[in-house]
Amino acid sequence: MNNRVDSEFGMYKIEQSFEVRYHYPVHFVDGLLKPNQSLLAETFRSENSGERPKVMVVMDQGVVDAHPTLLDDFLAYHKIWADDFSLAGNPVVVPGGEQVKRDSTWVTHLIEQMDREKVDRHSYVCAIGGGAVIDMAGYAASITHRGIRIVRIPTTVLAQNDAAVGVKNGVNAYGKKNFLGTFAIPHAVINDASFLSTLDDRDWRSGIAEAVKVALIRDGEFFRELEELAPLLAQRDTEAMQRLIIRCAELHLRHIATSGDPFETGSARPLDFGHWSAHKLEQLSSFHIRHGEAVASGIALDVIYSRMIGRIDRSLEERVLHLFRNCGFELWYNEMAPTGDSWPLFEGISEFREHLGGALTLTLLDAEGTGVEVHSVDESVYREATAFLKTWVNDHVPA
């Protein structure tokens, strides 16, 4: 503690510094709710000194539809492990996808149940679903009692390798993605591979975009591995997907731990490579374009721009575009196109700057596995990049 008296103005100032160490596990299992699988019960038990905590369960409607026995399986699991935790009311089933982040009534609904069931700071919210449901449930938990512990059980590739392993929660508001949100450390993340088997092809594919992103800016060897795995990923090979998910999660966790800015107090978000246009593209399509699909297009656009301004060569650009195509991404959407002087997509630059709260900082590609931060971009070159992407996609339509 440092104290200081300013004698000239008669002012007194106290400065205090402290550090907080965070820790949370990310588990990988197959069959979390099997009767003899103790991991979930142990997760609720671990910090309660023998007490029996309450657990409020939030489930994604899409996951419940795809796994018709999920509710009964969870209730049966609780019956076996009832000495370890109690349920705070019946599991709450909420819509999946961006609609649950756009409609504020769902946050209110969860908070009302937490109040009604006396969920307190020794309790847990357990969210089972895709990234949007986990975002919304985590936000509701983090603003109740200044923070209820959250256990995330992500059920999509995108959530397991990216969205759910981080420290952010949020909902959409005022026409902007994640305008309201918090940084709240999860108590634990549990990735259950069994949930991936029922994903449709779009959701299976969407999560690959985030793996390409982190490989391009952090790990060239991982990028080369993804090029080799592309045919298997396109064929829904589960072993290849598990390799992708685990490595991608490792790189995201390493960034959180070592980047020096886990709560994004600065103006740089390197793991949002390709996201300035992706977030806007989702909005322009009324969220019919899924996040991973938009990210793939955003990365493609930023890679082409990086080549056009001389940061990378055409061979790396081609490798990235072919990797996305080999995994089944479309890459071009009509919402990306400028219309005369108007270019709604490019408004994403201003919104990205506003979201960061400072000077514009974008990540571009400097080499295979190496990102670089820039603080200004040329709209005319981005227009050229957009035209190039449209032409490239048209020239590479699968036979």
What does this structure look like?
- By secondary structure, the protein is α/β, with parallel strands linked by helices.
- Helices cover 45% and strands 17% of the residues.
- The chain has helices at residues 39-45, 61-66, 70-80, 99-102, 105-116, 131-142, 157-161, 201-218, 220-234, 238-258, 275-284, 291-308, 314-326, 347-356, 379-395; strands spanning 2-6, 11-15, 26-29, 54-60, 86-87, 92-94, 124-129, 149-154, 168-173, 176-183, 188-192, 362-367, 370-374.
- The strands form four sheets. Strands 3, 4, 5, 6, 7, 8 and 11 form a seven-stranded parallel β-sheet that branches. The protein has a two-stranded antiparallel sheet with strand order 1-2. A two-stranded antiparallel ribbon has the order 9-10.
- A hairpin with a 4-residue loop joins strand 1 and strand 2 (11-15).
- It is globular and about 60 Å long.
Quick overview of this protein structure:
With 399 residues, the protein is an alpha/beta fold. The chain has 15 helices and 13 strands.
How much of the residues is beta strand, in percent? Answer: 15-25%
- Termini Cα gap: 69 Å
Q: Bin the helical content.
A: 40-55%
Overall morphology: globular
* Largest pleated sheet: 7 strands, parallel
Class by SSE composition = alpha/beta
List the helices and strands and how they pair.
Elements: E1 2-6, E2 11-15, E3 26-29, H1 39-45, E4 54-60, H2 61-66, H3 70-80, E5 86-87, E6 92-94, H4 99-102, H5 105-116, E7 124-129, H6 131-142, E8 149-154, H7 157-161, E9 168-173, E10 176-183, E11 188-192, H8 201-218, H9 220-234, H10 238-258, H11 275-284, H12 291-308, H13 314-326, H14 347-356, E12 362-367, E13 370-374, H15 379-395
Parallel strand pairs: 3-11, 4-5, 4-6, 4-7, 7-8, 8-11
Antiparallel strand pairs: 1-2, 9-10, 12-13
Helix pairs in contact: 5-6, 8-9, 8-10, 8-12, 9-10, 9-13, 11-12, 11-14, 12-13, 12-15
